[in-house]
Amino acid sequence: MNPKKQQRLILFGGIFLAAAGAVALTLYALRGSITYFYTPSELALLDETPTSPIRLGGLVAYESVEYDRAETGDVVSFTVEDGGAAVVRVNFAGLLPDLFREGQGVVVQGRMTGDGVMTADNVLAKHDENYMPKEVAEALKEQGVWKEDETGS
Amino acid sequence: MSAFFAIIARDVALAFRAGGGALQAVSFFALTIVLFALAVGPDLALMSDIAAPVLWTSALLATLISLEQVYRPDREDGSLDVLAETSDVLALTAFAKATAHWISTGLLLTAATPILALLFNIEGPALWPLLLSLLIGAPGLSLIGSFAAALTAALPRAGLLIAIIVSPLYAPILIFGAGAASAGAAGDPQYGANLALLGASSLFAAIFSPLASAAALRFNLD
Amino acid sequence: MPDAARYTVTLAACDLAVARGGRVIVDGVNLAIEPGDAVVIRGPNGAGKTTLLRAFAGLLTPAGGEVVVSDDRQRVFCGVLNAGKPTLTVNENLRFWAALYGARVAAARAALGLEPVEHRPMRELSTGYQRRLGLARLVLSGRAIWIVDEPTAGLDAASTTAFERLLAEHRARGGAAIIATHEPLDAPGARTLELQP
Amino acid sequence: MAATSLYELANPVRFERIAARAFPVSLIAAALLGAFGLYFALFNSPADYQQGETVRIMYVHVPAAWMAMFCYSAMAISSIAGFVWKHPLADVAAKETAPIGAAFTFLALFTGSLWGKPMWGAWWAWDARLTSVLILFFLYLGYMALWRAIPDKTRAAKLAAILAIVGFVNVPIIKFSVDWWNSLHQPASVLRAGGPSIHADMLTPLFFTIGAYVFGYVALLLASMRNELMARRLARMESASAPSPASLVER
To answer: Is the same domain home to A59 and A20?
Structure first.
């Protein structure tokens, strides 16, 4: 085998191995799911509560939002759920985005300050891919076609 | 195949001779880390929180400044012609050049990390994720970087241009590298996934970089 | 030199055109080179000698026509640059090339008289010795077709004669050479071509 | 048919003739569609059930983001065409697409930021979609910088083409980033399995503005390609005074 052919073989063999390795690693990583935020259920599965700042994503539970107008300013607390058993109670002092409401998807940045309790530095509202006029949304809800879990997540 | 190793040996030797980039890169690495530390101030807890991103960014910048040395000197003194006329598969030659660059910068930076990490209050077990991520990611930095160096081989002052071209391409390696190092230190389960994606990025760079570099070099021979 | 190792490589340029900076500067070049041939190319500065040589060497894609070589791996190009590394010693440079061309150092080093400076870094050498190191690569490569740009620029009379002798030996073994130069070159039987607008 | 018309376009003289006619047509189309689109977007489309009036930013933002990716893809495809078919206009098209694409990318980032503040509560978030689009912007800048840095334009065309092709990996990452990672940015609404999830009353103005952006791109591209070709012709005329090609003569 002449050197050129031999080197071509090395090149293509190397490319094939590297490609296989890259695909395998990517599949492995996607199985572990690399996330922009944790959901409450994922957080509950962790062995120990993270001490560093994290992002928490989920839906604001219905009838969970409480405003505490103390002298320190507006403090709001609410529960974030993801349909599983685990929930996280979030305390936040600051401006909430327009989209923030019960049942809405949110991404909360902050630190865990206890088991299932989080102090937020920032609350971001996540909006979904559905765009429609208000009347249509209401009509859909009345007809019962509207599935609540379509929002957020 | 002996040519492959001869190229690596020569480039590594050159990097450590007078005017070579190896010691400059590692000094720059140390300097950036010190400057970061001075800017952050004395908060040790904050320092260990940001150690991984700071060391990763510094390693990236140190790699960046040494990239101009990969192909431009060879183009200027005629060596590139010799490499081209003796190479059977130019992509393998480009791979050898990138490997040599990794040995003389990336590996050196990784080796210097345990000491420099002390400046950011990182020691003991927290060090391992950082070292492992650099070991996996730094070859990717050299591979992608040497592609940008090949594109600009014929340009006399390409340092800034290389930085502009290569920075967006470096983004995945930086994100997954610093992400893995941070997650590993914090005991976060995303450590493995970040490390895997870092490895995938480096392997992907190992595929495209030699081929693209070879194509670029051919047009830079003219 | 053993007579058995005779070269049989030929090179032909057919209607070759080369461009520099997107403009065709040389065209209509037809040239056939047989074993033992030497071609000296002359012409004013900027006429495109170097560009043409690079096309012969296969380092530059022609703007038109083609260069055909009977064996692709038998060309060696030596430009005005010596292709050595200033911080490496003469021996280190030679050994690196030897690894690339799959050849040996000793004969080439002796042929160009480089022994006295073999352990010195290239940047410490005089211009003449640096050029000799550059030319040593032609001999070292063991390739049939030398393509050389200004081989004797910066060489003293004795060194020029030495190069002429090496060239004669190379041709005697069936080797060929294309040389661009402004200087007088004693190469018996060489064809001289002029680049004219 | 397609092949012949492509090769007809390949001839710069024919291109000039066709472009001279296509340019005003696409400019007018862009203006009309833009006017219709803006009218519908601002006055004749409903507010969103969640976002209220702020949803109207979508009509500027979504087409800009699409064009950002479209332009990069067009650039990469022209670059490949330049290598494979040696198409004389391919590198001109790629080169002139870059600044337009960069402008669209900037517009997408800027309007997205304006939209993000009231909706999400942040001007910027480092999520996968936003980050990958920002990287796209820098890829455009790198591509343009490379073109500018290399004085020899034939070489610049080839090297920039390699860079454009390499950078193309980012385009699928942008498109699928919202599916692969659970990001802050919402998933695709129009091009998705199961049909658009945008109400028809909102889809209409969106299609108008998308049309306006596409024709706007075509008009800008044609204008700048004509400019570039004219500049090259001028450069060639200037170098015509240079000596004619030399040839080898036996002496």
So the answer is: no
B46 near D CB under 8 A? no
Measure CB to CB from residue D162 to each of B167, B168, B216 and give the nearest one.
B216
What does the domain layout of chain B look like in residue ranges? 2-221
B interface mutation test: which of A4, A9, A11 has the most B CBs within 10 A? Answer: A11
Residue D2 in this model has a pLDDT that exceeds 70: no
**Alpha carbon distance, N-terminus to C-terminus of chain B:** 26
Pair (A71, A48) in one structural domain: yes
The sign of the dihedral angle between the CA atoms of D221, D227, D230, D234 is negative
Mean pLDDT of chain C: 92
- Does D146 contact B161 at a Cβ distance shorter than 8 Å? yes
Tabulate helix, strand, coil % of chain C (nearest 5): 35, 25, 40
Instruction: Find the residue in B nearest to A54 (Cα).
Output: B188
Domains of chain A: total: 2
Mutation for C interface: D159, D248, D250, D251, most C CBs within 10 A: D248
Which are the contacts of B77, defined by CB distance < 8 A and separation ≥ 6? C81, C82, C83, C84, C85, C86
Residue A77 and residue A138 share a domain: yes
Map out the domains of chain C with their CATH numbers.
11-83+141-194 (3.40.50.300)
Q: Which residues of chain B have pLDDT under 70?
A: 1
Any B CB within 8 A of A130 CB: no
A14 and A44 part of one domain = no
ipTM: 0.86
Q: Which of D162, D169, D171, D177 to mutate to test the interface with B (most CBs of B within 10 A)?
A: D162
State the smallest CA–CA distance between residue B47 and chain D in angstroms: 21
Residue D4: pLDDT over 50? no
Q: Are C164 and C187 in contact (CB under 8 A)?
A: yes
pLDDT on residue D45: 80
Shared domain check, A114 and A51: yes
Burial class of residue D206 (count of CB atoms within 10 Å of its CB; 0-12, 13-18, 19+):
buried
Q: Name the band, by pLDDT with cuts 50, 70 and 90, for residue A1.
A: low
Find where tokens 């012409």 sit: C43
Q: Is D153 on the interface with B (CB under 8 A)?
A: no
* Domain with A72 in it: 40-150
Quick one: A100 and A29 in the same domain? no
Question: What letter represents residue B220's amino acid?
Answer: N
Both A76 and A141 in one domain: the answer is yes
pLDDT tens per residue across span D174-207 = 888 877 766 678 777 777 767 778 888 888 888 9
D237 touches chain C (CB under 8 A): no
Give contacts of C 35-54 with D, CB under 8 A.
41-43, 47-48, 52
Residues A55 and A125 in one domain: yes
pLDDT category at A149 given cuts 50, 70, 90 is very low
What's the residue count for chain D? 251
Nearest to C195 among D154, D239, D248 (CB): D248
